[in-house]
């Protein structure tokens, strides 16, 4: 197990170096002068020059990279060009909201996917299965922003049960907090639920036809125990895989969800920084997202190796 | 941007079971027949054909100019004159939905085409030559995959400026790693097969081995992955345009129209309904077609 983690960590290093190249060149790939793009052409020439020097854009490119990466390694991901706030402070202020949203969405998706997936597999070709399959297809084909608008229309506008925009921190009351995150979490969780349902159904169908399941049934084990102890255990491995693979989708979905519901998370920060052409901010946030994403993938790999010894020793 | 390469190759790009011997010509009809009779496939094929047709003949069938504003008739409910109503600037929603199909199809097809071509080439080089080229290409692929797809597309789109071209390139970059990994895995497994060794023994040059022996055998998973990716590329373009970072207004795109209408959900829900329904039905149809192609080409991974 230790070697697996070490090997994965070592493999991350060249990837992260390439990632920093990519993120660094971001500001230089913009067409024309990046300062013009950020501030507008009519901006005062002296002020432009000052910003150019401040950002180090007057230096040769390799010097710029080394200066930048030196700061990044020491935890300085740059500052906003708009309000001079350090990227890392802005992100750490917002990351909580994004993680709460992701955890809530994950909980909703598993709470939906498990019953639907298991019932679909155990009652194959029944109306329940038909409903489960339809649900999965719907969730996969329906873009999350449409789900969001549908939810806003039904629960926010027509029924007026839940708030449709904004975030209420837990300090201002737990009920308000949960309510403010409910529609966004359903939006984000539904697509995930669909994918998990589909995976769980097909992997359970496979394990249910295994010999050891027949043996368990033959010795007279109650059906729910057959499912829980024998089928589900092996049937869960593809679900863990798919959850890991869906991580990127979840982050992308969070960007859109936070945008629609005006949640002050990291995803919304990406969009607003792009809109305001705050390139140092975009650079810093995207690098942080990439690092977080790579680390969470590593975590998934570790969990996976722990669940399935074949991978550890493979 | 959903399930990139979910069902067929795991995160490490492990190859599918290698496909069987090259198929005989008359088996192809059996394949087409099987694909067309799969569940949902007739519906999917019909939807796809209809959307392509609509995109091609858009100027002849759209009842109004999709860009013509008519503020007096803004936010009209659907009627005989405006079948899907009018938007907040008085433009005919139906005409805009019709023209929007062009953006969706171009974005979906072109970005996946870039992904297939560039990714396959990279994977081919990596898998076939091995060594330094292999590790270089694969580290590059890993680096691209270190970004969540939509976030990468957003950043690349921001770099290239708004517009269909930028969206297509950005999504093309996002889809490239999937195909590179898939191709490399396939090449690695096929490289070891006897018929490739035999070709090498009789002195076939590398390009000939690739063209005659490798490509026909790796085509199946690439086609399957490509057909399923198009649906997600269309969703991704719509997402970018919805965020206002894709195809800029006034060009009609389904995602952009939905974003524009979301402020009028209460007074004029039809502004969102038209493009929303078009997007959902198109993606649904493409998914059916993709599943049918997968089932027909590789019955072993049918679920």
Give an overview in words.
The complex is a heterodimer of chains A (314) and B (303). Chain A has 314 residues and is an all-alpha fold. Helix content of chain A is 79%, strand content 0%. By secondary structure, chain B is mostly helical. Chain B has eleven helices and no strands. Chain B has helices at residues 25-37, 41-56, 58-61, 93-129, 131-145, 149-160, 164-191, 194-201, 206-242, 254-261, 270-297. In chain B, helix 4 packs antiparallel against helix 5. The two termini of chain B are 22 Å apart.
Question: Could you provide a short overview of the structure?
Answer:
The complex is a heterodimer of chains A (314) and B (303). Chain A is mainly alpha-helical and 314 residues long. Chain A is built from 14 helices and no strands.
What CATH calls the topology of chain B is MetI-like fold
Largest interface: A-B, 55 and 48 residues
Strand content of chain A: under 5%
> Which parts of chain B are unreliable, with pLDDT below 50 for 5 consecutive residues or more?
1-23
Query: What's the N-to-C terminus distance of chain A?
Result: 12 Å
SSE string of chain B, helices as H and strands as E: HHHHHHHHHHH
Sheet bearing the most strands of chain B, described? none
Roughly how much helix do the residues of chain B carry, as a percent range? 55-70%
Q: Using the 3D structure, state the CATH architecture of chain B.
A: Orthogonal Bundle
Mind telling me the CATH superfamily name of chain B?
Answer: MetI-like
Number of strands of chain B: 0
Can you tell me the CATH class of chain B? Mainly Alpha
Helix and strand sequence of chain A = HHHHHHHHHHHHHH
Number of strands of chain A: 0
């Amino acid at each position: 197990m230790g070697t697996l983690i070490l090997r994965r960590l070592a493999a991350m290093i060249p990837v992260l170096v390439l990632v920093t190249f990519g993120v660094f060149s971001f500001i230089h790939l913009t067409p024309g002068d990046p300062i013009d793009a950020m501030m507008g052409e009519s901006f005062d020439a002296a002020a432009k020059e000052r910003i150019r020097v401040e950002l180090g854009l007057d230096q040769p490119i390799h010097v710029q990279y080394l200066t930048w990466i030196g700061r990044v390694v020491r935890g300085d991901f740059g500052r906003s060009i708009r309000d001079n706030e350090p990227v890392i402070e802005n992100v750490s202020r917002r990351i909580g909201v994004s993680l709460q949203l992701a955890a809530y969405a994950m909980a909703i998706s598993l709470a939906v996917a498990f019953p639907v997936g298991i019932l679909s597999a155990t009652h194959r070709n029944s109306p329940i299965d038909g409903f489960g399959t339809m649900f999965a297809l719907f969730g996969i084909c329906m873009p999350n922003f449409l789900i969001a608008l549908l939810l806003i229309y039904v629960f926010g506008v027509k029924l007026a049960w839940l708030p449709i925009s904004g975030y209420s921190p837990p300090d201002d009351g737990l009920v308000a907090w949960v309510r403010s995150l409910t529609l966004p979490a359903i939006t984000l969780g539904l697509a995930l639920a669909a994918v998990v349902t589909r995976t769980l159904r097909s992997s359970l169908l496979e394990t249910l036809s295994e010999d050891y399941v027949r043996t368990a049934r033959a010795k007279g084990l109650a059906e729910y125990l057959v499912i829980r102890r024998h089928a589900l255990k092996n049937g869960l491995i593809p679900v863990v895989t798919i959850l890991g693979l869906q991580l990127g989708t979840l982050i992308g979905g969070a960007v859109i969800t936070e945008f629609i519901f005006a949640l002050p998370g990291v995803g919304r920060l990406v969009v607003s920084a792009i809109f305001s052409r705050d390139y140092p901010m975009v650079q810093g946030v995207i690098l942080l997202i990439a690092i977080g994403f790579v680390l969470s993938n590593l975590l998934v790999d570790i969990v996976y190796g722990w669940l399935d010894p074949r991978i550890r020793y493979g | 941007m959903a399930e990139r390469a979910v069902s067929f190759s795991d995160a490490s790009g492990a190859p599918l079971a290698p496909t069987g011997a090259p198929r005989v010509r008359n088996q192809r009809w059996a394949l087409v027949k099987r694909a067309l009779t799969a569940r949902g496939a007739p519906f999917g094929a019909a939807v796809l054909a209809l959307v392509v047709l609509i995109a091609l003949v858009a100027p002849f069938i759209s009842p109004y100019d999709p860009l013509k504003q008519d503020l007096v008739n803004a936010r009209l409910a659907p009627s005989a004159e405006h079948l899907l109503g009018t938007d907040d600037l008085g433009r005919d929603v139906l005409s805009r939905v019709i023209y929007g199909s062009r953006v969706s199809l171009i974005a979906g097809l072109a970005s996946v085409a870039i992904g297939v071509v560039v990714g396959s080439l990279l994977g081919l080089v990596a898998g076939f030559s091995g060594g330094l080229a292999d590790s270089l290409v694969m580290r590059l692929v890993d680096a691209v995959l270190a970004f969540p797809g939509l976030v990468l597309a957003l950043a690349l789109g921001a770099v290239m400026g708004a517009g269909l071209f930028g969206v297509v390139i950005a999504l093309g970059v996002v889809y490239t790693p999937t195909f590179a990994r898939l191709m490399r895995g396939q090449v690695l497994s096929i490289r070891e097969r006897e018929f490739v060794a035999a070709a090498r023994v009789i002195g076939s040059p590398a390009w000939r081995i690739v063209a005659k022996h490798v490509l026909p055998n790796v085509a199946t998973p690439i086609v399957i992955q490509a057909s399923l990716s198009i649906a997600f590329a269309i969703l991704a373009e719509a997402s970018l345009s919805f965020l206002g970072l894709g195809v800029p207004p006034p060009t009609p795109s389904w995602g952009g129209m939905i974003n524009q209408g979301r402020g009028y959900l209460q007074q004029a829900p039809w502004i969102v309904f038209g493009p929303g329904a078009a997007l959902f039905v198109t993606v649904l149809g493409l998914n059916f077609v993709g599943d049918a192609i997968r089932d027909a080409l590789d019955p072993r991974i049918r679920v």
